[in-house]
Amino acid sequence: MPEPFPAPDTRHPIRLTDGTAHAGTVFLAAVIAHPRWQVGDYSYASAFAPPSDWAAELAPYLFEFSPERLLIGKFCQIADGVRFITASANHRRDGFSTFPFAVFGGGVAAGRPSMPGPGADTVIGNDVWIGQGAKILPGTRIGDGCILGAGAVVGGRVPPYSVVAGNPGRVLRRRFDEAVIARLAEIAWWEWPIDRILTHEAAICGADITALEAASIAS
Could you confirm whether 34 is annotated as catalytic? Predict the structure, then answer.
Protein backbone atom coordinates (compact mmCIF):
# COMPACT_ATOMS: atom_id res chain seq x y z
CA MET A 1 0.00 0.00 0.00
CA PRO A 2 1.37 3.45 -0.88
CA GLU A 3 1.79 5.96 1.91
CA PRO A 4 -1.14 8.40 2.12
CA PHE A 5 -0.36 12.03 1.42
CA PRO A 6 0.28 13.79 4.75
CA ALA A 7 -2.21 16.26 6.19
CA PRO A 8 -1.14 19.93 6.09
CA ASP A 9 -0.81 20.00 9.87
CA THR A 10 1.82 17.23 9.83
CA ARG A 11 5.00 18.46 11.47
CA HIS A 12 7.41 16.16 9.60
CA PRO A 13 5.76 15.12 6.31
CA ILE A 14 8.69 13.11 4.87
CA ARG A 15 9.48 9.59 6.05
CA LEU A 16 12.91 8.04 5.69
CA THR A 17 13.45 4.51 4.41
CA ASP A 18 13.52 3.16 7.97
CA GLY A 19 10.12 4.71 8.65
CA THR A 20 11.36 7.51 10.90
CA ALA A 21 10.43 11.14 10.33
CA HIS A 22 12.85 13.40 8.46
CA ALA A 23 13.37 16.18 11.01
CA GLY A 24 14.86 18.56 8.46
CA THR A 25 11.64 19.22 6.55
CA VAL A 26 8.44 20.63 8.05
CA PHE A 27 5.06 21.76 6.88
CA LEU A 28 5.14 25.33 8.15
CA ALA A 29 1.47 25.38 9.15
CA ALA A 30 2.32 22.72 11.74
CA VAL A 31 5.31 24.48 13.32
CA ILE A 32 4.55 28.21 13.12
CA ALA A 33 2.57 29.62 16.03
CA HIS A 34 3.33 33.31 15.59
CA PRO A 35 0.78 36.13 15.45
CA ARG A 36 2.53 37.95 12.58
CA TRP A 37 2.84 34.90 10.31
CA GLN A 38 0.19 33.56 7.94
CA VAL A 39 1.13 30.45 5.98
CA GLY A 40 -0.89 28.29 3.59
CA ASP A 41 -1.38 24.55 3.56
CA TYR A 42 1.45 22.29 2.38
CA SER A 43 4.08 25.03 2.23
CA TYR A 44 7.28 23.53 3.61
CA ALA A 45 10.77 24.54 4.69
CA SER A 46 13.93 22.45 4.90
CA ALA A 47 17.11 22.86 6.94
CA PHE A 48 20.21 20.70 7.32
CA ALA A 49 20.37 21.74 10.98
CA PRO A 50 16.69 21.87 11.98
CA PRO A 51 16.01 24.80 14.33
CA SER A 52 13.97 24.59 17.50
CA ASP A 53 12.08 27.72 16.41
CA TRP A 54 11.33 27.76 12.69
CA ALA A 55 9.66 31.18 12.80
CA ALA A 56 12.72 32.81 14.37
CA GLU A 57 15.07 30.98 12.01
CA LEU A 58 13.27 32.01 8.84
CA ALA A 59 12.22 35.53 9.84
CA PRO A 60 14.47 36.61 12.72
CA TYR A 61 13.31 40.25 12.73
CA LEU A 62 9.59 39.49 12.78
CA PHE A 63 8.70 39.91 16.44
CA GLU A 64 5.34 39.26 18.06
CA PHE A 65 4.95 43.02 18.52
CA SER A 66 5.99 43.87 14.93
CA PRO A 67 3.42 45.87 12.96
CA GLU A 68 4.15 44.07 9.68
CA ARG A 69 3.20 40.52 8.69
CA LEU A 70 4.74 37.70 6.66
CA LEU A 71 2.16 36.08 4.38
CA ILE A 72 3.05 32.86 2.53
CA GLY A 73 0.68 31.05 0.18
CA LYS A 74 0.07 27.35 -0.36
CA PHE A 75 2.51 24.74 -1.71
CA CYS A 76 5.60 26.95 -1.35
CA GLN A 77 9.03 25.30 -1.17
CA ILE A 78 11.64 26.99 1.04
CA ALA A 79 15.20 25.69 0.94
CA ASP A 80 17.87 25.63 3.61
CA GLY A 81 19.28 29.00 4.65
CA VAL A 82 16.44 31.18 3.35
CA ARG A 83 15.81 34.35 5.36
CA PHE A 84 12.89 36.75 5.27
CA ILE A 85 14.25 40.16 6.29
CA THR A 86 11.02 41.83 7.37
CA ALA A 87 10.36 45.52 7.94
CA SER A 88 11.18 45.50 11.66
CA ALA A 89 14.83 45.07 10.63
CA ASN A 90 14.81 48.53 9.04
CA HIS A 91 16.50 51.67 10.30
CA ARG A 92 15.34 55.15 9.48
CA ARG A 93 17.26 56.21 6.38
CA ASP A 94 15.75 59.53 5.32
CA GLY A 95 17.75 61.65 7.76
CA PHE A 96 21.43 62.33 8.39
CA SER A 97 21.94 59.31 10.67
CA THR A 98 20.57 55.77 10.55
CA PHE A 99 21.52 55.02 14.19
CA PRO A 100 18.56 53.64 16.25
CA PHE A 101 19.13 55.63 19.45
CA ALA A 102 15.70 54.68 20.80
CA VAL A 103 16.59 50.98 20.88
CA PHE A 104 19.24 51.60 23.53
CA GLY A 105 17.28 53.81 25.90
CA GLY A 106 17.31 57.47 26.81
CA GLY A 107 13.53 57.64 26.97
CA VAL A 108 10.43 55.87 25.73
CA ALA A 109 11.09 54.23 22.36
CA ALA A 110 7.63 54.76 20.86
CA GLY A 111 7.51 57.76 18.56
CA ARG A 112 11.19 58.58 18.89
CA PRO A 113 12.69 60.34 15.86
CA SER A 114 15.39 57.66 15.44
CA MET A 115 12.78 54.95 14.84
CA PRO A 116 11.37 54.23 11.36
CA GLY A 117 7.64 54.12 10.77
CA PRO A 118 5.81 50.81 10.26
CA GLY A 119 6.81 48.93 7.12
CA ALA A 120 4.86 46.94 4.58
CA ASP A 121 3.92 43.28 4.80
CA THR A 122 6.03 40.71 2.94
CA VAL A 123 3.81 38.58 0.69
CA ILE A 124 4.75 35.32 -1.03
CA GLY A 125 2.29 33.82 -3.50
CA ASN A 126 1.39 30.17 -4.06
CA ASP A 127 3.69 27.47 -5.46
CA VAL A 128 6.83 29.62 -5.06
CA TRP A 129 10.22 27.88 -4.93
CA ILE A 130 12.82 29.82 -2.90
CA GLY A 131 16.32 28.46 -3.43
CA GLN A 132 19.08 27.83 -0.91
CA GLY A 133 20.31 30.90 0.94
CA ALA A 134 17.98 33.38 -0.75
CA LYS A 135 17.09 36.55 1.14
CA ILE A 136 13.72 38.25 0.80
CA LEU A 137 13.81 41.96 1.64
CA PRO A 138 11.18 43.95 3.59
CA GLY A 139 7.89 44.53 1.80
CA THR A 140 8.66 42.20 -1.11
CA ARG A 141 5.67 40.85 -3.02
CA ILE A 142 6.33 37.68 -4.99
CA GLY A 143 3.73 36.39 -7.43
CA ASP A 144 2.45 32.84 -7.79
CA GLY A 145 4.72 30.26 -9.40
CA CYS A 146 8.00 32.15 -9.11
CA ILE A 147 11.43 30.53 -8.80
CA LEU A 148 14.03 32.44 -6.76
CA GLY A 149 17.57 31.21 -7.38
CA ALA A 150 20.05 30.15 -4.72
CA GLY A 151 21.58 33.16 -3.00
CA ALA A 152 19.25 35.66 -4.65
CA VAL A 153 18.52 38.89 -2.78
CA VAL A 154 14.99 39.78 -3.78
CA GLY A 155 13.01 42.97 -3.23
CA GLY A 156 10.11 44.87 -4.73
CA ARG A 157 7.32 43.29 -6.76
CA VAL A 158 8.04 40.11 -8.71
CA PRO A 159 5.50 39.19 -11.42
CA PRO A 160 3.94 35.71 -11.31
CA TYR A 161 5.92 32.85 -12.85
CA SER A 162 9.20 34.77 -12.93
CA VAL A 163 12.67 33.28 -12.57
CA VAL A 164 14.80 35.56 -10.36
CA ALA A 165 18.52 35.35 -9.59
CA GLY A 166 21.40 37.50 -8.43
CA ASN A 167 22.15 40.32 -6.00
CA PRO A 168 20.22 42.46 -6.50
CA GLY A 169 17.70 39.90 -7.70
CA ARG A 170 16.60 40.41 -11.29
CA VAL A 171 13.92 38.74 -13.36
CA LEU A 172 15.78 36.60 -15.88
CA ARG A 173 12.69 35.44 -17.71
CA ARG A 174 9.05 34.51 -17.33
CA ARG A 175 8.39 30.79 -17.13
CA PHE A 176 5.41 31.00 -19.52
CA ASP A 177 3.86 33.60 -21.79
CA GLU A 178 1.30 36.07 -20.48
CA ALA A 179 -1.67 34.19 -21.92
CA VAL A 180 -0.68 30.95 -20.15
CA ILE A 181 0.04 32.82 -16.90
CA ALA A 182 -3.43 34.37 -17.00
CA ARG A 183 -4.98 30.93 -17.53
CA LEU A 184 -2.96 29.49 -14.64
CA ALA A 185 -4.21 32.26 -12.35
CA GLU A 186 -7.77 31.44 -13.28
CA ILE A 187 -7.29 27.69 -12.74
CA ALA A 188 -5.58 28.23 -9.33
CA TRP A 189 -4.99 24.51 -8.85
CA TRP A 190 -3.59 25.12 -5.34
CA GLU A 191 -7.14 25.78 -4.17
CA TRP A 192 -8.32 22.28 -5.14
CA PRO A 193 -8.76 19.54 -2.52
CA ILE A 194 -5.59 17.49 -2.14
CA ASP A 195 -7.17 14.30 -3.53
CA ARG A 196 -8.07 16.15 -6.73
CA ILE A 197 -4.58 17.61 -6.95
CA LEU A 198 -3.03 14.14 -6.66
CA THR A 199 -5.41 12.75 -9.28
CA HIS A 200 -4.24 15.40 -11.73
CA GLU A 201 -0.59 15.52 -10.67
CA ALA A 202 0.63 14.92 -14.21
CA ALA A 203 -1.32 17.89 -15.56
CA ILE A 204 -0.19 20.17 -12.72
CA CYS A 205 3.47 19.21 -13.04
CA GLY A 206 3.45 19.19 -16.84
CA ALA A 207 3.46 22.13 -19.24
CA ASP A 208 0.29 21.42 -21.24
CA ILE A 209 -2.18 24.17 -20.34
CA THR A 210 -4.95 22.45 -22.30
CA ALA A 211 -4.55 19.29 -20.21
CA LEU A 212 -4.58 21.33 -17.01
CA GLU A 213 -7.70 23.19 -18.05
CA ALA A 214 -9.35 19.87 -18.82
CA ALA A 215 -8.36 18.64 -15.35
CA SER A 216 -9.80 21.79 -13.80
CA ILE A 217 -13.27 21.03 -15.12
CA ALA A 218 -13.12 17.27 -14.56
CA SER A 219 -15.22 15.89 -11.74
Answer: no
